[in-house]
Amino acid sequence: MNWNDFYKSVKAGQYQSVYLFTGPEEHNKREALEALRRALLPAGLEQLNEAVLDGADAQTIIDSAETLPVMCERRIVVVRDWAPLTSGKSRNEEAEAERMLKWLQDPPETCCLVFYMVLELNGKKKLASALKKLDGYVEFEYLSGPTLSKWCAQQLKPLGKRIRQDAIDEMTLMAGSDLTRLSGELAKLAAYVGDAPEIGVADVRAVVAPSPEYSVFMILDHLLAGRLAEATQVVNSVLLTEPSPIRIIYLIGSQLRLDAHMKYAMESGGMLAEVQKALNINSGRAWHIKKQIAPVKAEVLQALYLACVDTEYAIKSGSVQDRAALNALLIKISQAKNATK
Predict the structure, then answer these.
(1) pTM for the complete prediction?
(2) Measuring CA to CA, how many Å separate 118 from each of 22, 28, 34, 81, 98?
(3) Burial 78-110 (b: 16+ CB within 10 A, else e)
(4) Helix or strand run (H / E) with residue 116
């Protein structure tokens, strides 16, 4: 289920014995766990009816989940980033996973066991696959489109403010999609506009501090338009706060990968709205990416992404210096405009 379905089930008093909370949106994930706590744990008895486990083995988790609640119907056991669900291989992983899989066949109704993932879930593992089939599997993706607009409106309503859709698009382009950060930015914007009832694009540009991802987006804007000098200025500015050339290369590669996906989809006849939905990005970012990739072929964008991967590997293997490699990559990308149709 998605996070919205989860809230509906909690409101209806319908709970699962086992949950798997995963996905990148931490703000909503934390709020969902708090909603479960408010619904199940009586005031004053929270500590008696909740256990939070880190690095526990399967038997410890099972014992905690089978402990009877005190003066309430269910207790909550939260297991954070359990190793058998993450990348890599943990100690006795097969035996631990098998023990948990056997227990999952008949979990008690007196407990809500929540596997809470901050790290990325390894969906290929047997236990992860089993948990994803349960009714308690909840995936917390970044909000976008009307859902994000509604969330922004809810955040601003107590402050007596509203925000234009183009301002939301600009804010998420500059600050990203993490709701924790967006909540803070909305509060700043509400204070900035003073008595004005509405927040616009100019307000966002005046108040919101650009994320490294946004700065990298602007670097690519310059490079794909052939403006190497302007891109270098932005890179130098980013290096003052993010002094890791390899991190910048990684972010450039991530954006180029997204650019290539969009270009291939649109060259195949995909409509912008369809591509935006498939890539799980908001309309503002989709429009900006469309403009960014206009002069470059899809195969060129793919080749540039692979060049980023190769450059990152070369730095990590010690065959080139990081800043020299970054500079060479910037030059290579700035020449991409010549490879047009």
Answers:
(1) 0.72
(2) 7, 12, 16, 6, 23
(3) bbbebbbbbeeeeeebeebbebbeebbeebeee
(4) strand 111-116
Task: Decide: 27 and 183 in contact? Cβ < 8 Å.
Answer: yes
Burial 34-61 (b: 16+ CB within 10 A, else e): eebeeebbeeeeeeebbbebeebbbeeb
Amino acid at 176: G
Q: Cα(290)–Cα(287) distance, rounded to whole angstroms?
A: 5
Identify the sign of the CA torsion 205, 208, 212, 217. negative
Amino acid in the structure at residue 223:
L
- CA atoms of 82 and 61, how far apart (whole Å): 10
Closest-CA residue to 216 (of 265, 277, 289, 275): 289
DSSP 138: E
Digit-by-digit pLDDT tens for the chain (341 residues) are 888 899 999 999 999 999 999 998 899 999 999 999 999 999 999 999 999 999 999 999 999 999 999 999 999 999 999 999 998 888 889 999 999 999 999 999 999 999 999 998 998 899 999 999 999 999 998 887 788 899 999 999 999 999 999 999 889 888 888 899 999 999 999 999 999 999 999 999 999 988 888 888 899 999 999 999 999 999 998 888 878 899 999 999 999 999 999 999 888 887 877 887 777 776 677 888 888 888 899 999 999 999 999 999 999 999 999 999 999 999 999 988 665 44
Contact of 56 with 18, CB cutoff 8 Å: no
Place of tokens 């793919």: 302
Closest C-alpha among 56, 55, 36 to residue 46: 36
Q: Using alpha carbons, select from 42, 11, 44, 10 the residue that is nearest to residue 114.
A: 10
> How far, in Å, CA of 162 to CA of 153, rounded?
6
3-state secondary structure 242-260: CCCHHHHHHHHHHHHHHHH
B/e letters for 130-165, b = 16+ CB within 10 Å, e = fewer, are: bbeebebbbbbebbbbeebbebbeebbeeeebebee
Longest CA–CA separation in the chain, Å = 72
